[in-house]
Amino acid sequence: MNVATGAQALADFIRRHPRLVVLSGAGCSTPSGIPDYRDASGNWKPGPPVLGAQFVRELPARQRYWARSLNGWPRFQAARPNGAHRALARLEQHGHVRHLITQNVDGLHQHAGSRAVTELHGSLARVRCLACGDVCARAAVQRMLERDNPGFMNLDAAPAPDGDAQLEARGLGDFRVPDCPRCGGMLKPDVVFFGESVPAPTVATCLDALAQADALLCVGTSLMVYSGFRFCRHAVARGQPVAALNLGRTRADDMLTLKVAAACDEVLAALLEELQAQPDVPNALQRSEPPSSTSTMA
Ligand SMILES: [Zn+2]
């Protein structure tokens, strides 16, 4: 779809509903080289990830997780914010984004300068001991992984691109998972795994922020995971309009006041220009009309 048209529609939405809570997802970070878990139809690609219960219960699941993580981490931690992250940080500075709820675990919103951020699913930069509760940096765990598993490194550099197939071929039974340096307990990334729940206080913080906003804007998320979708349901139940900027289908498509189906980095950058070219009209800060009929920009 046309980026300029999408940006214009979003700018109008923001002029009518100037105080936003933003819910961001994987699509926001794909331009930074972090892969999306779902395709444009909302289906898993290439297959569902490790479940939390499986991770805790089964050594082979932990071996598989950490072996993939050992190889994926260097690229993940080298990722830098893109235009979408930077535009959302600017929108916070302009007072439009009052709170940003992210389903991403990459810390890129904070790197770009966003302050009022809730990491709904935690952060991959931290690792927690399930026995003593100690939290350490993922970077430190990387040094342990590399020290203990030199034979499993640099799979990405090998000729065949299928890292998983190569891991299978090497026999993951020999892979040494990291233990807590303090107590020897089981280490787990400080993220909400699939099949796990977001902590109640985290949800409460987000709902408080939503209650003080004029509208909810979803950016780069298909909303297929309930932990994010619930905020759309809450917004609609309160009579707050919901807009979505996402390339593909979303689970909330039939609840949306506005849908912009386009790349979020391009549209958000154009949106900033649009808002700067035509600043808010003086009465824009009044609480505006109830949700109108859905207009789909595709
Ligand atoms: Zn420990």
Shape label = elongated
> What is the N-to-C succession of helices and strands?
HEHHHEHEEEHHEHEHEEHE
Biggest pleated sheet: 7 strands, parallel
Number of strands: 10
Q: Helix proportion of residues, in percent?
A: 25-40%
Beta-strand proportion = 15-25%
Bound molecules: zinc ion
Radius of gyration: 21 Å
Which structural class is indicated by helix and strand composition?
Answer: alpha/beta
The N- and C-terminal alpha carbons lie at a distance of 6 Å
Number of helices: 10
The residue-averaged pLDDT reads 88
* Weakly predicted, low-confidence segments: 281-293
Assembly type of the chains comes to single chain
Query: In order across it, which strands form the biggest sheet?
Result: 3-2-1-7-8-9-10
Describe this structure in words.
With 298 residues, the protein is of the alpha/beta class. 38% of the residues lie in helices and 15% in strands. The protein is built from ten helices and ten strands. It has helices at residues 3-16, 52-57, 59-78, 83-93, 108-112, 138-148, 163-170, 200-211, 226-237, 264-277, and strands at 20-24, 97-102, 117-119, 122-129, 135-137, 187-191, 215-219, 242-245, 258-260, 295-297. A seven-stranded parallel β-sheet has the order 3-2-1-7-8-9-10, with helices on both faces. A three-stranded antiparallel β-sheet has the order 5-4-6. A hairpin with a 5-residue loop joins strand 4 (122-129) and strand 5 (135-137). Helix 4 (83-93) packs parallel to helix 10. The chain is elongated, with a radius of gyration of 21 Å. It starts with a helix and ends with a strand. It binds zinc ion (ZN).
